[in-house]
Design goal:
This protein has 356 residues and is of the alpha/beta class. Its cofactor is pyridoxal 5'-phosphate.
Length: 356
């Protein structure tokens, strides 16, 4: 049996590792550990009657609210049925074109591009550079490339690139007439995030994808949006079916866009807990933890040994981690852990302390 393709696949991971625990804490899931805003479930009950009518196929109100939130025009935004739908729709832009992926990163980008007959080139960052890249690095490999696609902050490394580098990078792509696609699924988990909005307003060939399911801990609802250059957004809109966002999803997006205080509070709480957990793990002397700007982080043995025995031990102890066998250059030598609640993190620390 192959390794599960994603996190949050408990049954598949148990089958692969031949374990059978019901009381599992799933550290492979990187949604908000504190849950959704407390009122949201009651709101969903209030909104239930909306499922008996069609949502607006033109998404007029929804686009207006997203545009207002971002400070862009309605023609520069596009709601979606979760980030995955927008990833695959965006990939259709590049049929028979060449796209440079900055990896290791979320594996669905490559799958979406190849499914749409794009040619995929790869630039792979490494531990030696702390998963960082420079404009000079990309200039060497970006010849005859139509687009560059990356995740920021990156999944699974949790890393960000400096604002100065991003500014130079976007200018470089603009001068070379290369489209830039940025997935910001974990944008709002940063305490001080870099904003790509000014470049959209300057009409750069830029597309930015955002998921709302991570921060608000509602992955089953499938809501997200993207923004970018008007002409590119219009093309992607033509690839999507009418009514692609359901009535409950529409109402949830409009409501949750107003929750900036919730977002800010979550980012601060996770920052404090992440740094505490990192410090405690490093004290064990068995593992190396990599810096992260978001709600997950990478870990490996200090001696760089295979982590499959650790992954199995954790599962036997009721802890699921995210393997990295599908990520280029990571290839299973690292595990990714979500930042959970303090109680759950203490259980992880206890199990790690008993590993040798």
């Amino acid at each position: 049996m192959s390794w599960p393709e994603h996190g949050a696949m408990n049954e598949a991971l148990q089958e692969k590792l031949q374990t059978n625990r019901r009381d599992v804490i799933d550290f492979s899931v990187n949604t908000n550990p504190y849950g959704a805003p407390p009122y949201l479930l009651d709101k969903m009950k209030e909104w239930l009657s909306s499922i008996f009518t069609y949502p607006d196929p033109k998404q007029t109100k929804l686009k207006k609210e997203i545009a207002k939130h971002l400070g862009v025009t309605e023609e520069e935004v596009l709601p979606g049925n979760g980030g995955a739908e927008l990833i695959y729709a965006t990939a259709r832009l590049f049929t028979n074109q060449t796209v440079l992926l900055i990896e290791p990163t979320f594996t669905e980008y490559r799958l979406a591009l190849t499914a749409n007959h794009a040619r995929v080139k790869s630039y792979v960052t490494t531990e030696e550079t702390m998963w960082q890249w420079t404009v000079e690095d990309l200039e060497k490999v970006a010849k005859d490339v139509d687009a560059i696609w990356f995740c920021h902050p990156n999944n699974p490394t949790g890393t960000t690139i400096s604002p100065n580098t991003l500014d130079s990078f976007l200018t470089f792509c603009y001068e070379k007439n290369m489209t830039v696609v940025v997935d910001e699924a974990f944008f709002d988990f940063q305490v001080t995030p870099f904003s790509f909005l000014p470049y959209v307003k300057k009409d750069y060939p830029l597309l930015v994808l955002r998921s709302m399911t991570k921060m608000f801990a509602i992955p089953g609802l499938r809501i997200g949006y993207m923004f970018g250059q008007r002409s590119l957004i219009q093309q992607i809109q033509s690839f999507l079916p009418a009514w692609n966002v359901n009535s409950l999803g529409e109402k949830a997006i409009v409501t949750l866009l107003q929750e900036q205080n919730f977002v800010n509070d979550t980012a601060k709480r996770i920052h404090v807990e992440r740094e505490r957990v990192h410090s405690e793990i490093e004290k064990l002397g068995t593992f190396h933890v990599f810096p992260s700007a978001v709600n997950f982080y990478l870990l490996r043995h200090v001696d760089n040994r295979d982590v499959e025995p650790l992954l199995r031990f954790l599962a036997q102890e009721g802890i699921h981690a995210r393997h990295t066998y599908h990520f280029p250059r990571l290839e299973g030598r690292y595990l990714r852990f979500a930042v959970k609640t303090r109680k759950e993190n203490e259980q992880l620390l206890d199990v790690l302390s008993r590993w040798n």
